[in-house]
């Protein structure tokens, strides 16, 4: 029997509210709507809900590596890294050595994600990410070369959407490196906005292997394609048209992806861009009336017009792996090298790591190395669980690359001239030049922060909005109202609970928040619970008051996204600390990370209130989130010192921070730095003894019996080791013809060729 209360509620309240709801819904372009449909959500949805499920969080566990994966990491990955000379690749050869390319193919580095049944390695997301990270600690161009075929490549697209025939033919060839793939989406007009794409495909009949075949005539001008100059197979995105109705009734079929062999007549590849002067293969491509059969459409004829959705689906996972792995590598190398350098480099009679000004830079470097590695491992748990979390991977892509940028800049500052002069002894210059690439590719950062993280997150992660949007769009109005009514009132209940939670936990610092009981880490959980509730309320008010207009208030949306991102990154740090067995020695890192993260979230929520278009609602946000008063303080000088000391002190924490960083042998600059650090630490008591007696000269100290002859030898060895590290390269001018870019710029882009 119908519930009379519900019937009355539906007609008196829900019906008019449904009309209002429709009017404030954001208008979505086709590409936005398809992006929203791609992938799913993971832990970020819990954080967005205002009440994270800590039991679920406790269940997130890394599966570890299989025997095969571990053997690959310890074997071919190390062998490959040993083949790479960063300076030679980036300044002299401008490519990987031939034997390195051959090694990559032979050991199936390009087929890490391709299942074993298709002759690939069938690695998990965590193993794939680990391999990319380790290579990136040695050489960025090599890591990019490995990364691309294992992301959009189009190996992943083939696995997800390819026809059986396409999978059978292409996947083994890709896995064995018999095909070198690339993915060409970006064109001259279409950068961030794929809908501006001018690449076209027209359905027609043509000649294919001597037979008249139904196919597509393609024309394109693409640029920035990684591996494009050496690719044998392009995953090409274009707009498909069918003016003669050969495939059906529709003329504009939308963005479609096809597999285009580069040896077809009309395809022009091979020229190179030189992105930031790095050596990985990247370049433009053109196609003039290139004919392919319909069977080359990725996924076959039924996948026509699904290109954007496919890309978003694949990127939803890929953005959690490729750039986060590169960024983690750069941060770990920065932490390892800068910590050591700050201990061995002396100025004004003491090592520079003792200066507070230097510690202000060292601490965020150490924290980023810990946090990015933590977040990288965290998201691969979700990916290995089968999720394609577009919002979480957007968070990872943006925040990992931004923190990489901050970290490398700090590392450069601490190294001074040592990191500025180019040469084989400079281990920071290549990562430094790679920064803008990480920031720009796979969804440029400003756009990712302004439009994707909260823009999509607020709809994807919200427990009700997406379903409500789907309900109001139903053609059956009765069913629409029934569904909407049910969702709406659950939504209202959710909001009331969050308003209370946000205000109360804000007031009490989360002291009474529901968090795991048997843990010494309760204070951290409480902060996460508090700011999760704060975010839920601030989001709800923003969505309710601004509706579709929020899309154009990018700075507000970005700040709310920053809070969601911070919650996600802090969750990762907490998970890592627990998974590592809660080592007391690492606690200063966790403390620093939480102090910094909380201060950031607090400030961002206050800024949302300050900048809200309505003063009343801005005040309401600040009141309900308790962010209008005092700011939360970030890391203190004492915390900076504690973290800096961990970076400079050989031991377990330093080892954990450097886990997976490739360190060569002999003259390798990172290896030399580590040797010098160990010797510095060993000799510090000797130096102290000499200082106490006011003797600077080693021989004089030996003659005076302050140190033994053996100790004097140690100090001389230390002197040599430190010199080796702090020296920079200089070049015979005749050699400079070889260094730098010598590629010529006669045809930067054949725009109208
Ligand atoms: C080294 C390198 C490798 C690449 N590899 C590939 C590849 O293999 N395949 C491929 O297809 N592409 C590749 N790209 C292209 C890359 O994905 C694009 O450069 C990127 O999408 C941005 O496009 P754009 O450079 O044209 O910048 P634009 O789209 O012109 O953007 C300029 C700026 O405006 C910002 N912006 C744009 N729209 C908005 C908005 N709505 N709100 C806020 N900010 C906005 C962007 O964030 C950016 O900061 C590569 C690029 C580089 C540099």
Description:
A hairpin with a 2-residue loop joins strand 8 (346-347) and strand 9 (350-351). The mean pLDDT is 94. 49% of the residues are buried. The longest helix is centred in the middle third of the chain and has 32 residues, at 477-508. This protein has helices at 4-24, 30-37, 43-49, 54-58, 67-74, 76-82, 86-93, 98-106, 125-136, 140-147, 152-161, 164-175, 307-318, 322-344, 356-384, 390-415, 429-440, 445-460, 465-472, 477-508, 522-546, 554-579, 587-611, 615-625, 637-648, 652-657, 669-692, 698-703, 709-726, and strands at 181-184, 200-208, 211-226, 233-241, 252-261, 267-268, 282-293, 346-347, 350-351. It has 753 residues and is α+β, with helices and mostly antiparallel strands. The protein is flat and about 100 Å long. Residues 182-186, 191-192, 224-226, 275, 282, 437, 440-441, 444, 446-447, 450-451, 554 line the site of flavin-adenine dinucleotide (FAD).
């Amino acid at each position: 029997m119908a519930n009379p209360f519900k019937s009355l509620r539906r007609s008196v309240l829900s019906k008019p509210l449904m009309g209002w709801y429709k009017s404030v819904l954001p208008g979505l372009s086709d590409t936005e709507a398809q992006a929203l449909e791609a992938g799913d959500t993971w832990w970020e949805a819990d954080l967005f809900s205002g009440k994270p499920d800590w039991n679920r969080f406790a269940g997130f566990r890394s599966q570890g590596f299989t025997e095969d994966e571990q053997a690959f990491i310890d074997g071919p990955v190390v062998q490959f890294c040993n083949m790479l000379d960063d300076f030679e690749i980036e300044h002299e050869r401008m490519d990987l050595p031939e034997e390195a390319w051959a090694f990559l193919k032979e050991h199936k580095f390009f087929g890490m994600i391709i299942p074993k049944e298709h002759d690939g390695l069938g690695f998990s997301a965590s193993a794939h990410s680990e391999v990319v990270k380790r290579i990136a600690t040695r050489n960025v161009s090599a890591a990019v070369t490995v990364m691309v075929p294992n992301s959009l490549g189009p190996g992943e697209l083939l696995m997800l959407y390819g026809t059986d025939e396409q999978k059978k033919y292409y996947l083994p060839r890709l896995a064995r490196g018999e095909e070198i793939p690339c993915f060409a989406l970006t064109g001259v007009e279409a950068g961030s906005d794929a809908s501006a794409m001018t690449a076209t495909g027209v359905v027609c009949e043509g000649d294919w292997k001597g037979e008249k075949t139904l196919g597509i005539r393609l024309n394109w001008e693409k640029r920035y394609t990684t591996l494009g100059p050496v690719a044998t197979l392009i995953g090409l995105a274009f707009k498909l048209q069918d003016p003669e109705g050969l495939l059906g009734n529709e003329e504009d079929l939308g963005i479609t992806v096809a597999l285009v062999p580069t040896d077809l007549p009309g395809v022009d590849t091979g020229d190179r861009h030189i992105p930031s002067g790095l050596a990985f293969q990247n370049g433009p491509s053109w196609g003039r009336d290139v004919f392919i059969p319909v069977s080359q459409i990725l996924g076959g004829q039924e996948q026509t017009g699904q290109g954007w959705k496919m890309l978003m689906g694949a990127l939803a996972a890929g953005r959690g792996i490729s750039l986060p792995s590169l960024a983690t590598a750069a941060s770990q190398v920065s932490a390892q090298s800068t910590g050591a350098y700050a201990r061995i480099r002396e100025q004004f009679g003491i090592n520079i790591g003792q200066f507070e000004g230097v510690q202000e830079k060292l601490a965020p470097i150490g924290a980023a190395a810990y946090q990015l590695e933590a977040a990288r491992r965290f998201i691969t748990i979700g990916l290995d669980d089968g999720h394609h979390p577009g919002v979480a991977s957007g968070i990872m892509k943006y925040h990992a690359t931004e923190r990489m940028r901050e970290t490398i800049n700090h590392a450069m500052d601490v190294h001074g001239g040592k990191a500025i002069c180019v040469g084989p002894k400079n281990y920071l210059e290549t990562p430094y030049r790679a920064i803008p690439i990480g920031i720009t590719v796979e969804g440029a950062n400003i756009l990712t922060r302004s439009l994707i993280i909260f823009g999509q997150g607020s709809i994807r992660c919200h427990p009700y909005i997406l379903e409500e949007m789907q309900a109001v769009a139903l053609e059956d109005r009765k069913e629409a109202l029934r569904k909407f009514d049910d969702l709406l009132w659950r939504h209202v209940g959710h909001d009331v609970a969050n308003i209370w939670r946000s205000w109360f936990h804000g007031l009490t610092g989360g002291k009474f928040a529901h968090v795991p009981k048997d843990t010494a880490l309760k204070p951290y959980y409480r902060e996460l619970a508090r700011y999760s509730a704060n975010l839920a309320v601030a989001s709800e008010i923003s969505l309710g008051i601004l509706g579709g207009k929020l899309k154009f208030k990018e700075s507000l949306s970005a700040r709310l996204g920053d809070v969601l991102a911070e919650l996600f990154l802090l969750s990762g740090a907490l998970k890592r600390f627990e998974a590592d067995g809660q080592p007391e020695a690492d606690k200063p890192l966790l403390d620093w990370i939480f102090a910094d993260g909380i201060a950031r979230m607090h400030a961002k929520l206050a800024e949302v209130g300050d900048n809200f278009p309505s003063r009343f609602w801005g005040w309401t946000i600040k009141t309900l989130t308790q962010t209008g008063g005092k700011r939360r303080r970030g890391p203190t000088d004492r915390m900076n010192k504690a973290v800096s000391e961990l970076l400079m002190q050989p031991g377990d924490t330093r080892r954990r921070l450097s886990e997976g960083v490739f360190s060569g042998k002999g003259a390798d600059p990172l290896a030399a730095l580590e040797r010098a650090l160990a010797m510095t630490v060993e000799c510090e008591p000797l130096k102290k003894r000499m200082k106490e007696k006011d003797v600077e000269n080693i021989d004089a100290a030996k003659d005076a019996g302050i140190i033994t002859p053996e100790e004097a030898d140690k100090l001389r060895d230390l002197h040599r080791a430190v010199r080796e590290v702090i020296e920079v390269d200089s070049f015979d001018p005749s050699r400079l013809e070889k260094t730098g870019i010598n590629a010529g710029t006669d045809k930067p882009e054949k725009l109208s060729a």
